[in-house]
C-alpha cells in the first residue's frame, strides 16, 4: 500500500475560444482510494464533470475564452494494487467473463488484426499465461527504443513494429495489439507514475486479463508498476487523452508531479 | 410506425469446439418496441446472454461442439423512428452532450484522423447541419460503388477512398469517418432492413448526432431507412459483428429475413 | 514548332559540405532541339556531367562547400512535339515494343498493383485508346484538387486517392498508376512549361505509350502541353528530381523561368 | 572459380492466349562466363529475345496459345565472383560513381524513405564499411523468419519489418531498403544458387556498392554466396521477375536446378 500526492499543473494559451475535455482526475477503481482531491481553473470557468464506464473514466469539460488557461489539480490517493501473481493462467475464450471480450477486438492504434504473422511466429508457441505476457513485454523492451518525439498522435502498433522506437503510449499499444492477436484481453491504462529518472509526465501502460483478474504490465520499465495511479482505462490512447482540445491553443507547460508520501 | 417479423436463420459447421458470440437480437432502443422474440440453438446448447451499453447491444455466447450448429431467431418488433427533420443543425462542440463526445474520435475502421485533406476540401465549406450530412451521403453514393466481395474484414474508410467500392459496412465507415473529421458525432448501426431487391442480409448504416438527437443515414440507398430495425450500435463494425467466432468453423448459410407485417 | 528561352536560377545556403545532383538541363529527345545552353555555379566549383538512358536524363554533380550556392542555367530550345492524334489505339501487350514493358510495372510512387478495384470499376469498361487515357486525365482533374503543400516527398498515387488533393507530380503519379493498372505503359516526365497564371516552377506530367508512340498527358490542365520542354523521364518522381541533396542545406529561392520566343 | 550446369524447367497451363516475358537466362556479367546455353518452348513458338542494361538483364517474350506451355532452359556457366574483401569501406556520396547513385533512391518494394527512425537507431552509429552491411544482414537473419507463403507479390520491406517473416526476395528488399536509407547503393539480384537443403528454386539476394565494387550479400544464409549465378539485376523484385504473365495461366511446376560440375 502506497500513498501519493499528485500535483498536476497544465498551462495553455488559448488563441480562440476553445472547448477542452480533460482527464487528469484519478479513477474510481478498486485498487486505489481517493483521500482528497481538488482542481481549479484560472480564470475561474464554469465546467462540467462527467464519467464513463461507471467512474473508471472521469472527465471535465470546460469552454475557455481567448487568453491564458491554467489548470491545477491536486490529489491524495492510496493505492493497493494486488501483488503480482506470476503463476496466473490465460483463460480459454469460453472462460473469459463477457465484459472482457470487448478488449479482444482491434482498435485504432492497436491493429491486432494486421500483425498475425509476427505474433504467431514469435509468441504463439510460448507457454500460455503470465510468463507469455511477460515475454511480450520483454520482447518490446528489447526491440523498441524509448525515444521522445519518435512518434506522433497517429502512430499505431504496426508503425511501432516498423519504427522500432516510440514513447510509453506506443509501448502500450504494441503490447495490447500482440495480446489481442493471441486472444488475451488487453486494454490501455493511463495515469501517474513516479519515474526513476525523468521529467514528470503522464504515463501509459496496459493491463491484461489473466485467470480472474486484470493485471498491469509496463514494457517501458520506466518506473515501479506498483506505484501507478490510474486515471483512464480504454481500448487505446484515443479513449483516454489527458486533454482533448477542440480549438486553437498552445500548450505552454505541463507538470504532472506525483510523489510518494 | 411499422411492425416487422424477423426470421433469422444461421447455419454453421463447427470443425472444432468453438466459442461464438452472436449479436442478432433486436436492441432495446426508444425507437423500437419488442413484441415478442425467441431463439433456439440446434443442438440445444447452454448459452449466456449479456448486454453492453444498457441494452443497446445484446449478446449471446455459446460454446458449440464439433458438428452442425443452427441458430434460429424470430422476433416481432414495432418501430417508431422519428420523422426525418431536415432542418436540424450541427451542434457546436460546446453544446454537444458529453456522452456523444466519444463518437468524435477515430476508430479502427474509421480513421477520421487520416482523411483531413479530403474532408476539408470537400465538405468543410458546406453549410452546416442536416444538409451537410446528406451531402456526405450523396458524395459516398456517387463516388463509391456497392460491390459484394470488394472489401474484407480489415478494410477501413481510408481503403474505401482508394478502392471506391465496398459493401454497406464500408459505406457506413466512410460516412462516419468524414463526419468525425468534421466534429460531428457519428456511430455505426447494424440491423435488419427490408431491401427493395436483394438477397436477405444484415444491413449496416450510421447515425449522426444533430441538434438534439441521433439521426440515421444510409449512403447505400438500399432500402427504406424508416424500416430499419436496430440490432447493434458501436464505434464501427468491430464493435457489433453479428457473429464473433473463436474457432474453426464454416458458415453454411445465413438468412436474416425481415418482413413488414 | 516553338522556340523557348529558359532561365533557371537556384539559390541555396549550404550549411555543411554537401553533394548535389542536379537535373535541370533539357533532355536530348527527338521532340526538342537544343540551340544553346550554358550553366554556371557560384562559387565556381568543379562539377561532373553524366547521363542516363542515352541522354534522356542529363545530370550534373557538384560538391558544394559551406556557404552560398547559386546555379544559373540558360538555354534556348526548339520543340516539335507531334500533333495530338486522338485516334491512337492502345496496344495489345503482345504488340508493345519490348522497351516499353518496363513502364507497366509499379514503382515507389505509382502503386499500380494496389488500386485494381478502383481502376477496374472506373476505367476497365471504357473504349480502349486515346479517349480512355483522356478519360483518366479528366477523372483526375475532376476528382483531385490542385493544392500547394497538400502532399510531400513520400506521397504516393494511393495517398492521392485518399487525399483528393495534390500538386503536379501527384497528378502525374496517379495518371501513371491508373494506366499501368490497365496495362498501358506510362512514365513520369519532368520539365519546363509556361503556365498561364502561376509562379514559374518546374512542371511534372506523364506520357503514355499508344499505338506506336509516346504521347504526353497532363491532368492538371495548367498549361499548353505542346509547350512543354522535357528535362527528365523516369518511372516516377524519384527518378528525376531537379535536385537531389546529400547534406544539410536551405533552399533560398528557385526560379525556373521559361518564355516563348 | 566454379562451373555449373543449370537445368530450368517451367510448365504452365495457359487458359487463354497469354503474353509471357521470361527472365531465366544467365546474365552477361564480368563475374560469370557463359559456356553454353539453349532453351526450348513446347509447343515450338516464335519468341523475341531482348535485353536491358547492356546484357545485365536478358529477356524472352513469347505469346502462348491456350494449352500447355513448357519451357526448358539449360546452360553451362563458369563463375568467378571476387573473393570477399571484408575490409571494404563505404564511399562518401561524393566518391560514388555516378551510375551507382540511381541505387540510393527508394523503390516500390524498398521504401528506404519510410524507415528512417529504425535505421538511424539501429545502424547509424555502427562503424561504416563492410562490417556495417554484414551487421544489417545479421540483423535481418536474427529478426526475420524465413517462411514460405508468409508474403505475397505486394509485400514491401516495411511490411517485412511488421511481419518479421518473409522469403528470399523479402530478405533482399529489407537489406536494400536499410542500405539505401544509410546512403549505401544497393540493388536486387536474382539468379540460381545451389541450396544446402531445400527444393530447387530461384534465389534472390542483394548487392551493395562498397569502395570500388559491387559485393553480393545474402541475409538468408541459405547457400554459398560464391556459388550464385546471376540472372537479373534491378532496383527490386519488380524489375526482374523470372516470369511476367499477361493473361490467365496456371503454373503447373517449376524446377530451376543448378548443379556444381
TrEMBL record, chains A, B, C, D:
It holds the Pfam family Transglut_core. Residues 160-221 form the Transglutaminase-like domain. SMART domains: TGc (SM00460). Coiled coil: none annotated. PANTHER family: BLL5557 PROTEIN, BLR5614 PROTEIN-RELATED. This is Transglutaminase-like domain-containing protein. It comes from Acinetobacter baylyi (strain ATCC 33305 / BD413 / ADP1).
Amino acid at each position: 500500500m502506497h500513498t501519493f500526492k499528485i500535483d498536476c499543473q497544465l498551462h495553455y494559451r488559448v488563441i480562440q475560444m476553445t472547448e477542452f475535455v480533460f482527464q487528469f482526475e484519478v479513477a474510481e477503481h478498486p485498487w486505489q482510494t481517493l483521500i482528497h482531491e481538488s482542481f481549479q481553473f484560472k480564470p475561474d470557468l464554469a465546467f462540467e464533470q462527467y464519467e464513463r464506464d461507471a467512474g473508471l473514466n472521469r472527465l471535465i469539460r470546460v469552454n475557455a475564452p481567448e487568453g491564458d488557461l491554467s489548470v491545477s489539480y491536486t490529489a491524495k490517493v492510496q493505492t493497493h494494487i494486488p501483488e503480482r501473481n506470476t503463476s496466473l493462467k490465460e483463460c480459454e475464450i469460453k472462460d473469459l467473463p463477457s465484459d472482457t471480450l470487448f478488449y479482444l477486438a482491434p482498435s485504432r492504434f492497436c491493429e491486432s488484426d494486421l500483425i498475425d504473422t509476427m505474433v504467431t511466429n514469435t509468441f504463439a508457441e510460448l507457454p500460455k499465461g503470465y510468463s507469455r505476457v511477460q515475454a511480450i513485454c520483454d520482447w518490446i523492451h528489447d526491440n523498441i527504443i524509448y525515444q521522445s518525439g519518435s512518434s506522433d498522435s497517429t502512430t499505431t502498433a504496426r508503425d511501432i513494429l516498423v519504427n522500432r522506437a516510440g514513447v510509453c503510449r506506443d509501448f502500450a499499444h504494441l503490447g495490447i495489439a500482440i495480446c489481442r492477436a493471441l486472444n488475451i484481453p488487453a486494454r490501455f491504462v493511463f495515469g501517474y507514475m513516479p519515474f526513476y529518472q525523468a521529467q514528470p509526465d503522464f504515463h501509459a501502460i496496459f493491463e491484461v486479463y489473466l485467470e480472474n483478474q486484470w493485471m498491469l504490465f509496463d514494457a517501458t520499465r520506466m518506473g515501479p508498476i506498483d506505484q501507478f495511479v490510474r486515471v483512464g482505462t480504454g481500448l487505446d490512447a484515443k479513449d483516454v487523452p489527458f486533454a482533448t482540445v477542440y480549438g486553437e491553443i498552445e500548450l505552454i507547460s505541463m507538470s504532472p508531479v506525483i510523489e510518494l508520501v
